[in-house]
Amino acid sequence: MHRRVAVTGLGVVSAFGDDVGAFWDALLAGRSAATEVRLEGLPPVPACVVGEVDAETAIGRREVRRMDRAGVFAAVAAAHALADAGDVGVDPWRFGAAIANAHGGIATLAENHRALLERGVDRVSPFTVPLLLTNSPVAGVARVHGLHGPTSAPATACAAASDAIGWAYERIRDGRADAMVAGGAEAALVEPIVAGYIRLGAIASLDRGAAGASRPFDAARDGFVMAEGAGALVLEELGAAEARGARIYAEVVGYGQSCDAGHLTSPDETGEGPARAIEAALADAGIGPEAIGYVNAHATSTPVGDGAEALAFVRAGLGRTPVSSTKGQHGHTLGAAGAIEAVATMAVFARGQLPPCANLDAPDVDLALVREATPASVEQAMSTGFGFGGHDAALVFRAPGAG
Fold first, then answer.
1. This model's pTM is above 0.85
2. Is residue 175 within a helix (H) or strand (E), and if so which, with residue range?
3. Contact, 230 vs 12, CB < 8 A?
4. Domain covering 254-398, topology
5. pLDDT tens, position by position, 155-203
6. What is the structure's pLDDT at 77?
7. Candidate CATH numbers 3.30.365.10, 3.90.1150.10, 3.40.47.10, 3.40.50.300; the one for domain 5-243
8. Is the pLDDT of residue 361 over 80?
9. Residue 385 and residue 373: Cα distance in Å, rounded?
10. Catalytic sites, residue numbers
């Protein structure tokens, strides 16, 4: 028999700071964290940059010095989520971690490549390889927090953090673990990566200023706003959480995946692939589309991507469900997106409000888009994640006490 899985802790590191309450406040107020960023050799771009984070207090100076920036973000978000959850009381060998990442420790790689060219091989850090690997953030989280259970580092591009949460949910549901820290981290605002996205034509212009650059589902959208940050959720078996009197933010009740298996970067413009992931998540939850009261869309503010996702929602029966994408405010955190947006989705239950779709002046899709923070009583919500390579993922969350 499958076990039920609760969300009992939340942590976030974003351009709005590393406090979940402040993060929710910013989203519900419709604020943007985007600024104009200038990197060496590149034209100015809009981006959401993480400012000062007291990482040494959260994880210790020694660990900060032994991590890439993405790993620091992951470990800090996990520390906040674990503190929020309280004493889970689980054997460390039954407590695991799943932390997604798309670009690995790219800042470490770029720094040491420069050192190699300018000063020679002896100036390359011996930690270069372990810190640039995609598993570096999850390895850091497990090490810093003493988690000896199952670990995974999904790297399914921008669907990765949704897959991390889904994988962690399945480990607990199927009895392979009793608790998990799940999420994603990204710190890819470095010259070669930003240049690559510019060459792809994926980065938003500054025609409307940095704050107005990301405009999911708006007719004037022309690309995404890159962001850095991390999100983490503590998941545990529902009965154990209730027995210890834990605060329960939500229950994870459904997870679905699919793959377009098509273009290298462009989504399936018919929306069939994402629709199948959504349908799989609904089937896993044992509900129909009419039971979903809100969708936090992946929508990144690209012309083709947002349109395909809108078609997917219609195909899956969610065409009249309230939908918003919060990327217009916190930007696109790539491999961390699904985790940060899962934290955003929890505001629907904790605050009783639907977050708005920022910069939405002239929508060009036929969806029930949320234009401003709206009071609502939602029993079940969905978060979606789609990535380069055609990776599709969807999660279903249920309000505490609703099931």
1. yes
2. none
3. yes
4. Peroxisomal Thiolase; Chain A, domain 1 (3.40.47)
5. 999 999 999 999 999 999 999 999 999 999 999 999 999 999 999 999 9
6. 98
7. 3.40.47.10
8. yes
9. 22
10. 158, 298, 332
